[in-house]
Amino acid sequence: MPKLALKIPAIATILGVALVLTGCTSSDTESTDTATNVNASTEECTESGSASDSVEVTGDFGAEPVVTFESPLTATDTERTVTIAGTGTDEASTHRLVEVSLMGFSGTTGEAIITSGWDDTSDSAFIQVDETQELEGLARAVNCAVVGDRVTVVIPPADAFGTGGQPDLGITADDSMVFVLDVKSIVPLTATGTDESAVAGLPTVELADDGAPSITIPDAEAPTDLKIETLKTGDGDVVASGDTVALEYTGVLWKNGEEFDSSWDTPGLVQFPTTGVVEGFGAAMVGQTVGSQVLAVIPPAQGYGEAGSQDGSITATDTLVFVLDIVAVTVAAPTE
């Protein structure tokens, strides 16, 4: 089956120079080292330790903190200290996506290497609670967090870049890393907007308990032009062309109602830019508000076109039907 998108690392797309934080393939040394570290898991909350407790962090939640620690600072395993306790009730768990402001430091030199999300001039970072998608230490840092938490984490090399280090950030194979993160939101798993009325003549949608859609095609010819209808209207930011969006989606063929692709098949949200998918799918995202659920009926010309899909399951005459839950903009399009 053709796949529109892959589960991609969230923090990689937001931090620019830090794309390599999570952009390595499974064949890379640092990814392999992290993946084979069996001493840590996001199945449990990470405990504090002498290293994370020793980091002094001052300032109010939401404001860029002042961070001091005696370097070199290291830890045998990742340590996590909550320096400000939030009041949120939704706790981050495996596969959840967490929005944070963050500062990152070399544990060896004490020098700041990353800062983002503290004001309107820089974007928040989004970290997935999944050590196969993120630096393991960062995934563990946000696991168990609630909105309003300020978390200090000390990450040893084995839970970060492994034996490869990261020269672009000045991190060697022997360097631990120190991060301070303010948890701004736990991204919802499904659209949270207000229900809208169904549109006659278009497919109908029923939702399972977990929010996964079932799509029923009407007994009618497929429309020849692009149809986009909002099933739920969210109250979040408006998606702009070029934004990277976190969402869940399911796609079926109009001709027989058969599902050919669904992000619901694997845990966790997908993320990709509006310009990185077929034309009609991108059009279904642009202009929508975060929290919305959208139905898109996409004619062949704005789907896979005359070539169809590489595996042949979608032909040049196939109309596609998608339901999208738009839950976050994880990277805003660059402004001119």
From TrEMBL:
Its EC number is 5.2.1.8. Residues 95-187, 242-330 form the PPIase FKBP-type domain. The keyword DNA repair does not apply. Residues 37-55 have a biased composition (Polar residues). It catalyses: [protein]-peptidylproline (omega=180) = [protein]-peptidylproline (omega=0). GO terms for molecular function: peptidyl-prolyl cis-trans isomerase activity. Residues 27-57 are annotated as: Disordered. Pfam families: FKBP_C. Belongs to the FKBP-type PPIase family. This is peptidylprolyl isomerase. It comes from Cryobacterium frigoriphilum.
